[in-house]
Amino acid sequence: MNFASDNTAGVAPPILDAIVKANEGFALGYGNDDATARVTKRLADLFEREVAVHLVATGTAANALALAHLSPPWGAILCHEQSHIATDECGAPEFFGGGLKLVTLPGTGCKLTPGIVGEALKRGPWGGPHHVTASVLSLTQSTEAGTVYRPDEIAALSKLAHAHGLAVHMDGARLANAMVRLQVSPAEATWKAGVDALSFGATKGGALGAEVIVFFEPARAAGMAERRKRAGHLLSKHRFLAAQMEAYLTGNCWLDLAAHANRMADRLAARLAMAGIDPVWPVDANEVFVILPRRVDERLKEAGARYYPWESRALPEGKTVPDESVLVRLVTSFSTTGGDVDRFADIVRGR
Amino acid sequence: MNFASDNTAGVAPPILDAIVKANEGFALGYGNDDATARVTKRLADLFEREVAVHLVATGTAANALALAHLSPPWGAILCHEQSHIATDECGAPEFFGGGLKLVTLPGTGCKLTPGIVGEALKRGPWGGPHHVTASVLSLTQSTEAGTVYRPDEIAALSKLAHAHGLAVHMDGARLANAMVRLQVSPAEATWKAGVDALSFGATKGGALGAEVIVFFEPARAAGMAERRKRAGHLLSKHRFLAAQMEAYLTGNCWLDLAAHANRMADRLAARLAMAGIDPVWPVDANEVFVILPRRVDERLKEAGARYYPWESRALPEGKTVPDESVLVRLVTSFSTTGGDVDRFADIVRGR
Amino acid sequence: MNFASDNTAGVAPPILDAIVKANEGFALGYGNDDATARVTKRLADLFEREVAVHLVATGTAANALALAHLSPPWGAILCHEQSHIATDECGAPEFFGGGLKLVTLPGTGCKLTPGIVGEALKRGPWGGPHHVTASVLSLTQSTEAGTVYRPDEIAALSKLAHAHGLAVHMDGARLANAMVRLQVSPAEATWKAGVDALSFGATKGGALGAEVIVFFEPARAAGMAERRKRAGHLLSKHRFLAAQMEAYLTGNCWLDLAAHANRMADRLAARLAMAGIDPVWPVDANEVFVILPRRVDERLKEAGARYYPWESRALPEGKTVPDESVLVRLVTSFSTTGGDVDRFADIVRGR
Amino acid sequence: MNFASDNTAGVAPPILDAIVKANEGFALGYGNDDATARVTKRLADLFEREVAVHLVATGTAANALALAHLSPPWGAILCHEQSHIATDECGAPEFFGGGLKLVTLPGTGCKLTPGIVGEALKRGPWGGPHHVTASVLSLTQSTEAGTVYRPDEIAALSKLAHAHGLAVHMDGARLANAMVRLQVSPAEATWKAGVDALSFGATKGGALGAEVIVFFEPARAAGMAERRKRAGHLLSKHRFLAAQMEAYLTGNCWLDLAAHANRMADRLAARLAMAGIDPVWPVDANEVFVILPRRVDERLKEAGARYYPWESRALPEGKTVPDESVLVRLVTSFSTTGGDVDRFADIVRGR
User: Which of D20, D28, D226 lies closest to C16 in CB terms?
Assistant: First the structure.
């Protein structure tokens, strides 16, 4: 019953098979191999346009490299106060970006709205020479709360951002989970809604460690190859990175893996609801956030369940965590089983 | 006949097996898994002392993180002018180190000597506030010329460095190949000879992508976990990094893989010598540098051989590359076959 | 009627005289002159202990150099959300600090309290490797609201900070104005209350451009000479920087200049109170913040008065800016005249 | 007899007068004052074109800000191995430039030639992703050896640089001294010869501390205001910086001050030649480099003469420093007197 994180899962079988299969013969290093060429083509097909593609092994690298490329050192990244870039990357965007600044904003269910962003842009102070310049709006899809931005929401935010001269970045560490829910094309969920650069994650979805930085205007990625290299993020045996991403994107593999995770989250939410425990936000992706009575929490821990408590600042207005209760995050993945879900729910229900 | 680089080889079978085997069940991310604990212990055993251990996926990351940790931003790293950190990392040490400086020194066969380093330390100018301060001596083992520092050579260089307040870093991307030649213990080849921090590579030796930064005084690594994280170099599914390093260091795996590569280099050198072509430096590890007549070079290329030309600045005094000839680097690896070596030599000999 | 900023004033006569007088003969550059030696001694006497002293020309440089020296790149500076370092230095601390992070906190009258800081330290998340580490508490004295921390307030904040491993920095751009109000010794207002490093400003007080970074534990300043130099902040004709600071600190010059500014602020507040306009915070130093009806604001502007509107987030609980009104900041300086103050007040009172 | 550096002199009277005179009334801070507007216009007139102008207090700041603006972090600055940016700024360009690299080249009399630069550009390796990219050629005018580039020499170097995609920076800390010798217009000596950005120094020429970064294509300076601010180099009482530069550039003040310094250098060289001591390079500006017998050196020191020994690497081919001799640098300035020169020469001649 491991609901701690989607990165506690291993590697999805088709991706592991691809790694093994890639281990045949010699191949030029540093991305000059055939698999890298194929995955670049596959991404262009997927997004229905030419794209600039840079593979890396971690999501933090993908985010920090992309943000540093989109913003001058005197820029400010606007993002949610619970976004991964703001809270869980130990200052990576600041480091890569030469000392840029993250300006964190509130928002229910970890979602930003045009109202929130617009007020921040209006209030400021922004701009030179005394103040940093708002340079990038970064959205997480799915969000850290397991909610999902709809294409029209992204479009409205992007329009606002672009009107103020900001670029739009999407942290898509869990993009697949959002795509399953949205049922639109990858193009519609990203650049057609105004996204300029995407950190497209495969690791949480089932890869060993593979993410791709996608720039929808290839010219905007000029210099990114050097930036990646000097950050130590150009793998020498690059074919194994490419093989992971290629397998992930072959057919519907990425969506199938995410669909399973989402189904498990839906099932978990449904079972908990039967026990009178409703999610605090809509379950849009592969995460369920619920408030558990302390004694239930203890019972689960004793039974070996793994998950983390969560902070309550982004709760919907009026909703609070009662005494003797705890807000927890439950994450499902491609490898979560229905049995684990049911067992967890049974324990909650005291069975 | 691929002698382009040891990173054109794939993954050695025991290491690939370990990756596959690591893919069982759930494991905590970010190094809180059992394999990471085991590999930490293994490294302590190997080096006969407590060590601080940080795994990363690339050699550039290992080097740049280690150097940034050893030097203040106003420090200077003394290194050979052909060292990987100076020529092939696109400024990674400078980036990680907040704008530190690399001071490059000459040396036959890519080896530094106390004479060369001593003169640089004497000449300067060094020190504040106008000049940068010499802070680290970085040695490559095996060197970029495939030569190997003997323990007493390292000790003499370390003694000089320490006497001037410099720390000693070793870029051990090909440490295993050196160890095979030296026939001393890992401790004797490193900290007992004065090395303070080591970038210990497994990738070129046969891993998919695994390097470990070893600090021989663990206290000196304080803060490295944060430095690694904010550089995007903490892998979430860290068990797969640990599994590679564990397999590499199990028994004599690492030395056996290197011994094969070295034997192939020796065989290649011997066969070429029979054709009247002697290596320009001693073949100490898994690299052979020879001067080929242009027409032989063309014949090899036509036959499909892969390798790179090399620059001639580090040639021994008096040795030059004649017109119509080219200095080339031939790299062997764990996966080089005797057949490939012999075929290459045969083509050279015009058979 | 210039109340825009204390840096719209020129240079106080004794300081300008000192610059002129320093222009005699040759002097070694870069701080190796006699005036620099004297000012170092003077600061030690003033603070009743040995101190490390580095002069620079701007307050932003003093703050950013000090903070970068106190914090690792993965550190977080806790400060008020309206502090100069957070809002008016275009990201200087982040740049100098290799990408460190500023964590901004609320507080009435731009003052932090142990309650506010304590909650931030408790809430976090802090610490490695995923989160930045709280490393410095930075206090502004006088604050951006013209209020003043009492020594026991500083001591309570410092005690809390030190207990959590944070260093304490004081941005003393207007330290003199606070000292006049506090009537304690410089030692009592700084290191005896727990301050580790001080940006001690003379520019706003009457210098042309002179600030000094004071480390109360000299050993902690090791490397600061290099850090200053490579930031371009070591003036070659350093004697002129030293001469300014020496004149500023001769006798009670610095306190006399500040006392005048404070008196003008008190007088301004008193006159405005007679017109029914009370300051929104206590007038502790040389700044008066009042809410003006829009038509009064217009009348003043027409009469040539210069001052800036201010943002209202730090207003005391319950206090708001009514429609058709504006919160403004009025700054006095050593060169403000009683005539200007009275004329301003007369215009407000419609005379 | 102070020939240690031109920054051991004080402030030239017209410039000091201007500082005193600027101290009248209130003025907006941060460059929004009238003097700054005037000096901007004056520079446009001087260079016969619109220019972007940013004043700072030190030459290191001017150089490092300009270079960071011209080069990406993965760029390399090509410069002479004895250039101030390479040897005397404690790594400032690397710090400001996010870890860029300086590639130092040899050259007699501290001058680069198209041959030397061309060979470096050809040899490399340059370019991505493994190697840094040559991005800027930086020339010092007058050079660190007191020699002067002729306009056609600059044009030839610029043409080569531009053809390879490099920008051209000129460190003009002693530009005035060169101008006096060249007798061409400022435009001809800079942008008409291909210079893209200029660090134009007044400090060594007689200012208290004033330099200006000039971009000849104003668009290229976009963002420089922010870069300067976050480096702590925007002075609040900016009028005093502007006043210095304005006085320096009023009429022929700057050239007159430099002409005096140059004349003193010529006179010194002539007198020493009469003693059989010839300069090792042509005396083009305000520096004389001679080889002194050790006993003469001692005699001078005893008599109170101040100057520094110099390193001998840039000596013309075939010229060496004999045993019992020392290569020294003698710098004159606007405040050097003929009496000091003659007395120095007399001591050399044993009178």
Answer: D20
d(CA C2, CA C36): 33
Tell me what pLDDT residue C350 has: 86
A351 touches chain C (CB under 8 A): no
Tally of CA atoms within 13 A in the half-sphere of D270 that contains its CB = 9
| C-beta neighbour count of C17 within 10 angstroms | 14
User: Where do the domains of chain D lie, and which CATH numbers do they carry?
Assistant: 12-249 (3.40.640.10), 253-348 (3.90.1150.10)
- CB contact under 8 Å between D128 and B88, yes or no, is no
Angstroms from A322 CA to nearest CA on chain B: 30
Nearest by CB: B234 against C129, C132, C225 = C129
Chain B: give the shortest CA distance to residue D123, in Å: 9
Q: How far apart are CA A197 and CA A167, in angstroms?
A: 8
Could you tell me which chain B residue has the CA closest to the CA of C231?
Answer: B74
DSSP state of B283: -
In this prediction the ipTM stands at 0.97
> Residue C160 in 3-state DSSP?
helix
* Contact between residue C264 and residue C35 where contact means Cβ atoms under 8 Å apart: no
Percent of chain C with pLDDT over 70: 100
Count the Cβ atoms, other than its own, within 10 Å of residue B192. 19
Instruction: Quote the CA–CA distance of A146 and C181 in Å, as a whole number.
Output: 53
Helix (H, G, I), strand (E, B) or coil at D338: helix
d(CA D332, CA D15): 19
Residue A1 has pLDDT above 90, yes or no: no
User: pLDDT tens digits for C314-343?
Assistant: 888 889 999 999 999 999 999 999 999 999
Asked whether the predicted pLDDT for residue D245 surpasses 90, the reply is yes
Residues 4-23 (C) with a CB less than 8 A from some CB of D? 4-5, 7-11, 16, 19-20, 22-23
Q: What is the pLDDT of residue A313?
A: 84
Q: According to the model, what pLDDT value does residue D313 have?
A: 84
Q: Between A and C, how many residue pairs show a Cβ–Cβ distance under 8 A?
A: 62
pLDDT over 90 percentage in chain B: 95
Determine the average pLDDT of the residues in D239-256.
Answer: 98
Mean local confidence (pLDDT), B265-280: 96
Where is A289: in which H helix or E strand? strand A287-293
Q: Where are the beta strands (DSSP E) in C173-236?
A: 197-201, 211-215
Answer whether A160 touches D (CB < 8 Å).
no
Give the strand order in the sheet containing A197-201. A52-56, A211-215, A197-201, A167-172, A133-140, A75-80, A101-105
Pairing of strands A197-201, A167-172: parallel
The beta strands (E) that lie in C120-279 are given as 133-140, 167-172, 197-201, 211-215
Those chains having 3 or more beta-carbon pairs within 8 angstroms of chain C are A, B, D
Q: Which D residues 90-109 touch A at CB under 8 Å?
A: 98-99
The string of pLDDT tens digits covering residues B294-311 is 999 999 999 999 999 998
Query: Does residue C88 contact residue C109 with C-beta atoms inside 8 Å?
Result: no
DSSP letter for each residue of C51-90? -EEEEES-HHHHHHHHHHHHS-TTEEEEEETT-HHHHSST
Tens of pLDDT, residue by residue over D143-170, are: 999 999 999 999 999 999 999 999 999 9
Q: Whole-angstrom Cα distance, residue B40 to residue B33?
A: 11
For residue B314, what pLDDT is reported?
A: 81
The answer to whether D61 contacts C209, with C-beta atoms less than 8 Å apart, is: no
CA distance to partner chain A, nearest, from residue D43 (Å) = 22
Which has the closest alpha carbon to A173: A202, A151, A195? A202
Model confidence at A312, pLDDT cuts 50, 70, 90, reads confident
Size of interface A-D (CB pairs under 8 A): 51
**D16 interaction partners in chain C (CB closer than 8 Å):** 19-20, 23
